[in-house]
Amino acid sequence: MPEPADDLAALLAAGPLVLDGGLGTLLEAHGHDLRSELWSARLLVEQPAAVRAAHAEFVAAGAQVLTTASYQVSYAGLGAAGFTDAEVDRMLRRSVTVAREAAGDAAVLVAASVGPYGAARADGSEYSGAYGLSVDELREWHRRRLRVLAEAGADLLAIETIPSPAEVEALCAELAEIGMPAWVSVSGASTGFTPESRTEALAAAAATPGVIAVGVNCCPPGDVLPALADLDVDVALLAYPNSGERWDAVVRQWRGDGGLDDALVESWLDAGVRLVGGCCRTTPADIARVAHLVDARPAGA
């Protein structure tokens, strides 16, 4: 029988799949205060129905892949807020369950989100990777969360917004031992990469067993093609930038104007991107436009 990674690779070879958009910022738009260090993880505990409803909006907009609300869920971050490791395990599993429930009977994949070490710190270091930790230390920090999510019933792992070569190396070393399908997406806006080191890190990720796609997220839309330009890999490409607005970690607010441009989305698809959607501040309306563009393309294009 084909391995799950082979099945997903075949699905991507048939044509692009539409990702969802900014889950946390959609929840904020619904009136939820996510300014605490736990971000949307708090709602998994207090109001999982709100998370489910936000996921469902993206399904209705045409998303074919839902990314779970586990990006910010970590043992260190939640432990500081008084949660036990067992409670964090349950929260990680709940993130997958809630997304699966939101998908309902729709043909939608669930990708379990794995954010970087810096996301748990909530201090902006997820955009630099300047942690002062070794690859082995990062492997240990990520290990339990990866394994719990791998066993929680998701279709694949979404390794996302990774800001440095060291953290990519650490996560890929763990993925190689887990054997579950995954994508690896680096932060296109991180100062922790040079253009050369980003290309090298993504190429190494693409060679990791189980990795079905590599690319960039959480960057201005105009940065997507330059980030992928020199990448020559045998797996699918992915792109899900933010709206173009800039996150100010000091005051915890978004600044500037944003929006996904149809011509840019078309250019990513023309360049071979097979997983396409949005990150922070992209809305169900944005994803509906992306879905329309994907649907309008010839089969297999």
Give an account of the 3D structure.
This protein is an alpha/beta fold. The chain has one domain: TIM Barrel, CATH 3.20.20.330. The chain is 45% helix and 15% strand. It has 13 helices and 10 strands. The strands form 2 sheets. It has an 8-stranded parallel sheet. The chain has a two-stranded antiparallel ribbon with strand order 8-9. Helix 4 (48-61) runs parallel beside helix 6 (85-103), helix 4 (48-61) runs parallel beside helix 13 (284-295) and helix 8 (135-150) crosses helix 9 (165-178). The longest helix has 19 residues, at 85-103. The model has no long low-confidence stretch (mean pLDDT 91). Residues 5-294 form the Hcy-binding domain. It comes from Microbacterium terricola. This is Homocysteine S-methyltransferase. InterPro entries: BHMT-like, HCY_dom, HCY_dom_sf, Hcy_S-methyltransferase. Its cofactor is Zn(2+).
Q: Radius of gyration, Cα only, in angstroms?
A: 17 Å
> Would you identify the CATH architecture?
Alpha-Beta Barrel
Mean pLDDT: 91
Provide the domain count.
Answer: 1
Distance between the ends: 27 Å
Oligomer state of the chains in this structure: single chain
Q: Strands of the biggest beta sheet: in what spatial order?
A: 1-10-7-6-5-4-3-2
Uncertain segments: none
How many DSSP H or I helices?
Answer: 13
CATH superfamily grouping: Homocysteine-binding-like domain
Helix content: 40-55%
What is the third-level CATH name, the topology?
A: TIM Barrel
Strand content is: 15-25%
Largest sheet: 8 strands, parallel
> Which secondary-structure class do the elements indicate?
alpha/beta
H and E order: HEHHHEHHEHHEHEHEHEEEHEH
Q: What is the total tally of β strands?
A: 10
